[in-house]
Design brief:
By secondary structure, this protein is α/β, with parallel strands linked by helices. It contains five helices and six strands, in the order H-E-H-E-E-E-H-E-H-E-H. Strands 1-2-3-4-5-6 form a six-stranded mixed sheet, sandwiched between helices. The longest helix has 22 residues.
Length: 162
């Protein structure tokens, strides 16, 4: 099994953890492409999967999830990143961050990032960029960006969705 294949499997496990936690909190898991055709059929508490947006390069991009809740009055895009072994994926974090602040339409975005393969300083850079609102402007400074590892995500979900 190659590094990329292994990374996909563990990334899928991270996504499975998100689905398990949020379905346990009452969110119905629905494919975005099904929901967009007839959104009234699926209710108000949803975890949409494979949700499109237009990237900073004006290409089609997808994030893993969009959480929509009438009960909790929120819409949260969720991006999952896993890095089990060292590699070059951490070089994509600035691209991800710029997409979060410039291209993703939601004001609340959760980046779930975990694994032990990240280069030293990569996650720290991401968290500092979020905290200092690097590269934001009047159109994006209101964004509420959360950067969690899996433990932080479990804690947040348990406190937020009672």
């Amino acid at each position: 099994m190659g590094k990329g294949q292994k990374g996909n499997i563990t990334g899928n496990q991270l996504e499975a953890a998100v689905k398990t936690v949020l379905s346990g909190k009452g969110f119905k898991i629905v494919k975005y492409r099904d929901w967009i055709k007839t959104p009234h059929k699926f209710g108000d508490e949803l975890l949409l999967t494979n949700v499109p947006y237009t990237t900073i390069y004006k290409h089609k991009g997808n994030t893993e999830f969009l959480l929509i809740s009438k009960k909790y009055n929120c819409t949260i895009r969720i991006e999952c990143k896993w890095q089990q072994t060292s590699g070059s994926v951490d070089e994509k974090l600035p691209y991800l961050y710029l997409n979060v602040i410039e291209a993703m339409p939601e004001d609340k975005i959760l980046i779930l990032i975990d694994g032990r393969g990240w280069k030293e300083g990569a996650i720290k850079w991401l968290k500092e960029s979020v905290e200092k609102k690097r590269y934001t402007n009047q159109n994006s400074e209101q964004k509420d960006i959360l950067v969690f590892n899996l433990t932080d995500f479990f804690t947040w979900a348990n406190k937020t969705f009672i």
